Design the sequence.
């Protein structure tokens, strides 16, 4: 795996940035969480005049062998159909990216039933498939360690090849069965009980949820003792999740602002954080998903999400919806008058 060179943020000017924020024409701390986001972006970009330039979104798509066991009420072919929907500009992520002027890329990381002839050639569709989905981790590793490393490296390369002058990047995903993969990754990276990690995914009823929990418990019991991140990602990861890991680490190396979406994207982030903890300094967590385990993930990471809209769609939709607030955190720093500029007396 590539050795990612992620640098600790330079905090030598943090008091200067905080002073600029504190002396805007408002009561101290009155812009709440926006002030925290703005300060973080000043630190990431090492400037008192931060910028949001060319926001980008990557949606990684792949299939999962575990879906064959019925952990989702939807068939695997829906992954392919949703990729076609993304490329037809018909999905929620398309609408929100269009609304907020976000450049959207769709990455085939390993979609099982895809037919490239159906997709019009487009430089925003990236062919990076590592196979027709992963193997079923109920009985065997989802992929080899070689494939795992290739996925991580591909994610890094895809980000760098297309990043242009972008200062901010979000990540989404599509893959029937990927909440099962994410639940096991969460369990292994956090040691939180599996029951707390497993949710309803694409809409399981109570009986379906019970079956899903039992299947994932059996999958864990059938697996050998695994501990390090590569072993965990190889055995229970997905091609799209593992590519996301590499892309997230690369974004931090590039000193880009890293927007983290919901349950599956945060599972990828947990892996990235395990590989290189400094990635957290570059990350903004966009929302708290309605998927059962996401709250516990955020608590484990000791982070606060921007939004809580009961979303559980994936696709990067939480990132796209949060971007205007991230933009606002930059705009008030750059455009809002200080007490001195406005001729207003500050507090005594």
Sequence:
């Amino acid at each position: 795996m590539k050795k990612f060179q992620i640098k600790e943020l330079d905090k030598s000017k943090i008091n200067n940035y905080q002073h600029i924020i504190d002396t805007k024409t408002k009561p101290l701390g009155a812009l709440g969480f926006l002030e925290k986001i703005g300060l973080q972006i000043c630190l990431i970009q090492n400037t008192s005049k931060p910028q949001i330039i060319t926001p980008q979104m990557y949606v990684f798509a792949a299939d999962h062998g575990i879906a064959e066991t019925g952990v989702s009420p939807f068939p695997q072919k829906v992954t392919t159909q949703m990729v076609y929907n993304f490329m037809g500009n018909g999905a929620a992520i398309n609408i929100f990216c269009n609304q907020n002027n976000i450049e959207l890329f769709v990455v085939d990381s390993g979609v099982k039933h895809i037919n490239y002839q159906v997709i019009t050639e487009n430089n925003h569709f990236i062919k990076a498939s590592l196979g027709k989905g992963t193997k079923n981790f109920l009985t065997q590793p989802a992929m080899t360690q070689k494939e795992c490393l290739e996925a991580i490296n591909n994610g890094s390369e895809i980000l760098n090849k297309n990043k242009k002058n972008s200062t901010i990047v979000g990540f989404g995903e599509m893959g029937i069965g990927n909440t099962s993969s994410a639940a096991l990754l969460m369990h292994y990276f956090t040691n939180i009980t599996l029951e707390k990690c497993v949710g309803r995914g694409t809409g399981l009823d109570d009986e379906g949820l019970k079956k899903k929990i039992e299947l994932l418990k059996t999958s864990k019991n059938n697996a050998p003792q695994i501990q390090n991140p590569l072993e965990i990602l190889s055995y229970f990861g997905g091609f799209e999740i593992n590519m996301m890991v590499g892309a997230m680490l690369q974004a931090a190396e590039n000193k880009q602002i890293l927007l983290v979406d919901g349950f599956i994207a945060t599972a990828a982030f947990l892996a990235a954080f395990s590989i290189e903890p400094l990635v957290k300094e570059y990350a903004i967590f966009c929302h708290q998903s309605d998927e059962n385990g996401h709250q516990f993930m955020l608590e484990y990471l000791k982070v606060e999400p921007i939004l809580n809209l009961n979303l559980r769609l994936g696709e990067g939709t939480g990132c796209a919806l949060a971007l205007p607030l991230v933009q606002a955190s930059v705009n008030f720093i750059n455009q809002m008058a200080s007490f001195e500029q406005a001729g207003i007396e500050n507090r005594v």
